Amino acid sequence: MEPARVNAISMQATTETAPVLEVRGMRKEFPGTLALDDVTLTVARGEIHALLGENGAGKSTLIKCICGAYAPTAGEVAVEGRLVSFSTPKGASDAGIAVVHQHYNLVPNITVAENLWLGETLPRRFGLIDWRRVHERARAVLDRLGIAVSTRAEISSLRPDEAAMISIAKAVSSDARIIILDEPTNALLPHEVERLFSRMRALAEQGHSFLYVSHRLAEVFEIADTATVLRDGRNAGTFTRRDMDRRAVVEAIVGRKDALAGRRSSSSARSETLMQVTNLTGVRARDVSFDLRAGEILGIAGLPGSGADEVMDLLFARNRRQAGRIAIDGREVALRDPAAAIRAGLALVPQDRLAEAVFHAESIRANISMPSLKRYLRDPFLRFINRGAEARAAGEVAGRMRVRMPGIETHIDALSGGNQQKVVLGRWLSTGARIFLLNSPTAAVDVGAKAEIYNLIHELAADGVGILFASTELDEYPLVCDRVLVFSGGRVVGALAGERLTGGNIMTLAAGGKLGDEHN
User: Fold this and answer.
1) Strand stretches in 103-201, DSSP E
2) Based on the domain organization, do 127 and 214 belong to the same domain?
């Protein structure tokens, strides 16, 4: 056999057997900061590989070094056994590496087909865009992935899981062999996550590889073949599916044992009823009744549209209730608008922190004091604010909430997601709120920050605050709550506490099932 042909066959065999992505000795220095220190990572063909670590662990920096957004200080990247070096993300894309960011890299006000062609020259006929070919190729890509979405639909009209899959479809259409997913499930509900995972598995079977970044460990254990953990810019452990023990992974992420307790160890609930809700009714929730005791953490759970997702908005008067009574300390309250709810002692931490809770143009001080500014008025007529008193009070709140910050005047966007959420939670302490409505308070925060937020919630309960808690992560309920009300079809269909309070039991009731003796 001719030497040239032998070499070609040898190169093809190497390409087929080599890892699809290999990072060796990656180092990245910024002025005064060592962000990555001798990091290694290997992703096999057809593998779903999770990249884990707290905020600041180096995950984003590593991804940027892989895809050409940053030039590494040292180290090398190999794609299918060949050393590569990218000066721009376009180079990485041409080499088969696609990055899907958590907001999906899509333009919302144009069609699915147009998004799939972004960055490419549209086909033309007689000097005009050939829209038939544009939609035919887009349809072929979607059919390959089993995505039943019209190519003419605007992205803004899609469900979040559909938008996520369109981003992945765009990567597949560009012949990407390595797809990096950065927090793709943050905006997804459980059934949407399952649809996304099903399609990821199908693509992996076809030979596509995924580098999957997520803070949601339950999802990582479900989908990942392998997990690499970074801590302080260094490798802290690599786990295969066989040895992906939850405690070991969490310890690798945070560097200490027992970062997350297995179950809430004790209750702070007292005998006094803080809030009584009777026959609360809205658009989806129907005839909801419950008591919330001082010091109690009461979970509300259900599938999308079950009514559970509307309860907090009804109580905080963001949605108008059609019927029902709300009593606080035994006295009925009207709660016609959010201002009335705040005066009655309610506080809301909404699900979408960035869109609904954070004042992006303001400092930490302003974000904490916003709902209680009247306390710092020097003159009720001229509306002058005592900034010194405001800053001292905000600093005390930030200290109690253990916010990691350079100073109280730091811009809030400079904080990590977990520290932003502590600010949002802490702003209500100075209003005298006694009933906290917490909707997904640990969304998009890392494992260490989750543990801190859990502890802060438990401390609030220990002080006698009543808490309503909701989450899109079912495994959070046993960690946080004393009991959980499960919704289906707009109504409460069960209450779980003690050993019956498990994610599986919540899902069974939420899906319309019944708990047998084996769950008792």
Assistant:
1) 124-125, 128-129, 178-182
2) yes
What does the alpha-carbon distance between residue 186 and residue 170 come to, in Å, rounded to a whole number?
20
How many domains does the chain contain in total? 3
In single-letter form, the type of residue at position 23 comes to V
CB-based contact 418:157 (threshold 8 Å):
no
Per-residue pLDDT 10s for the chain (520 aa) are 554 443 444 444 445 568 999 999 999 998 878 999 999 999 999 999 999 987 778 998 999 999 999 999 999 999 999 999 998 888 898 899 988 876 667 888 889 998 888 877 778 888 888 889 989 988 988 888 788 899 999 988 988 778 888 888 888 777 788 999 988 887 677 777 888 898 889 889 989 999 999 888 888 999 999 999 999 899 999 999 988 888 888 888 877 655 555 556 667 778 899 999 999 999 999 999 999 999 999 999 988 788 998 999 999 999 999 999 999 999 999 999 999 999 999 999 998 888 889 999 899 999 999 998 888 887 766 678 888 999 999 999 999 999 999 999 999 999 888 899 999 999 998 888 999 999 999 887 878 888 889 999 999 999 999 999 999 888 899 999 999 999 998 999 999 999 999 888 998 898 788 887 544 4
Residue among 61, 68, 65 nearest 95 (CA): 68
Instruction: Tell me: do 21 and 135 sit in the same domain.
Output: yes
Which of 228, 254, 280 is at the close of a domain?
A: 254
Edge-to-edge strand list for the sheet holding 466-470: 346-349, 435-439, 466-470, 297-302, 483-488, 491-497
CA–CA distances in Å: residue 254 to residues 58, 378, 443: 13, 45, 18
Domain of residue 332, CATH code: 3.40.50.300
Query: Distance between CA atoms of 361 and 411, rounded to whole angstroms?
Result: 7
Where helices occur in 34-104 by DSSP H, the ranges are: 59-67, 89-94
| In a shared domain, residues 123 and 222 | yes
Domain range for 184 is 17-254
d(CA 416, CA 229): 19
